[in-house]
Design a protein that fits this description.
Blueprint: H1 8-41, H2 48-71, H3 73-101, H4 105-112, H5 114-144
C-alpha cells in the first residue's frame, strides 16, 4: 500500500515501529562499540563469579597433564619433538616476516612499496578494461558471424 493511501493511524504505527527499530540498531551499535573497545584495549576479563571455577579447572587440568607426562615417557618424547618442530617453524616464520618487513622478495616489495602497489592497481584496471573490450569484440563476431573490421592486405 502506498503512503498516500494509508490512514493517519497506519502511518503512526509504522513510524513507531521505525523508531523502535532505530533504537534497537543504536543499542546494537553501542554494544558493538563497547565490545570493540574491550578487544582493542585487551581488557577481556572473566566475570568474578567464574574466577574460582576457572582456577580450579585450570589447576586440575594442569595436574592431569603433569601426571600424564610423568607416567608416560613416550608422551613426553612426542611432546618434546612437537615443541621442537613448532619452535623451528616459528623461527622460519619470523625470518620470513623480517624479510617481508625489510622489503625483500616479491611480498616485501608489495607490502613496502606504495608505488609498486599503485602500479599493480592501474595494471589490473587496464587489464579489466581490455578484457571487456575483448568480450565486446567477441560478441560482435558471434553476432555477425565474421570479423567486424575488414583486414587490409
Amino acid at each position: 500500500m502506498e503512503d498516500e493511501q494509508k490512514t493517519k493511524e497506519q502511518l503512526i504505527v509504522e513510524l513507531k515501529e521505525l523508531h523502535r527499530r532505530i533504537e534497537e540498531l543504536e543499542a546494537t551499535q553501542k554494544d558493538r562499540e563497547q565490545q570493540d573497545t574491550i578487544v582493542r584495549t585487551r581488557r577481556i576479563r572473566k566475570p568474578d563469579a567464574m574466577d574460582d571455577r576457572y582456577e580450579r579447572s585450570h589447576d586440575a587440568g594442569y595436574q592431569q597433564f603433569r601426571s600424564a607426562l610423568s607416567q608416560n615417557p613416550m608422551f613426553r618424547l612426542m611432546l618434546d619433538q612437537t615443541s621442537e618442530e613448532l619452535g623451528k617453524t616459528l623461527a622460519e616464520i619470523r625470518v620470513t616476516l623480517e624479510k617481508v618487513n625489510s622489503g625483500e622478495g616479491t611480498a616485501g616489495k608489495l607490502v613496502n612499496d606504495a608505488q609498486l602497489y599503485e602500479s599493480l592497481v592501474e595494471t589490473s584496471e587496464e587489464m579489466r578494461k581490455m578484457l571487456e573490450e575483448i568480450k565486446s569484440f567477441m560478441a560482435k563476431v558471434n553476432e555477425k558471424g565474421s570479423l567486424p573490421v575488414k583486414a587490409k592486405l
